[in-house]
């Protein structure tokens, strides 16, 4: 595909998979919109991108009500979004029986991984439908397919996004909008750094 002058919006773009995606899309000539909470890191990534026209939009997707406010204020000035990549995510590794006093872990994970992504989709989808063109890519997890132990909060949030995506795909197919879920395996990124055992896993 020719990405020249295509606009690609990537969440979680300040590190890991999102940062690498931003660099690869920029290398292919795309204009990249980078979003995450850390504006300093976002600007650092932006400065490393090839080409021009890239933008930084700080977003805290764990607060969906702020996403609506922040994105709505800028959506018209951004122009057409050709590709949206919902990559931002939070992972919690803890057994269910150890989470009896930590229900907020499930709430926080769902707020970011599911509600934040859905809110962003709902802001961008109308313009894609009018143009009859667009691609929404959700970075999911192999855990959704493998029932990974100790990851119930994380996998459940990704499974919810997965189900939303399948339903959405059926709705927007006639509008020439593609929906893709990518079931990533374990990737060595800052998100998994707190789990020390992963240092010894390929």
Folded structure, characterized:
The chain contains 7 helices and 6 strands. With 202 residues, the protein is α/β, with parallel strands linked by helices. The chain has a 6-stranded parallel sheet, sandwiched between helices. Helix 3 (64-72) runs parallel beside helix 5 and helix 5 packs parallel to helix 7. It is globular, with a radius of gyration of 17 Å.
Keywords:
alpha/beta, 7 helices
What composes the largest sheet? 6 strands, parallel
Number of strands: 6
Distance between the termini: 31 Å
Order of helices and strands: EHEHEHHEHEHHE
The chain-level structural class is alpha/beta
Name the beta content range. Answer: 15-25%
- Over the alpha carbons, how many angstroms does the gyration radius reach? 17 Å
Shape: globular
Strand order of the largest sheet: 3-2-1-4-5-6
- The helicity comes to 40-55%
Mean residue pLDDT: 90
Q: Which blocks of ≥5 consecutive residues have pLDDT under 50? A: none
Count the DSSP helices. 7
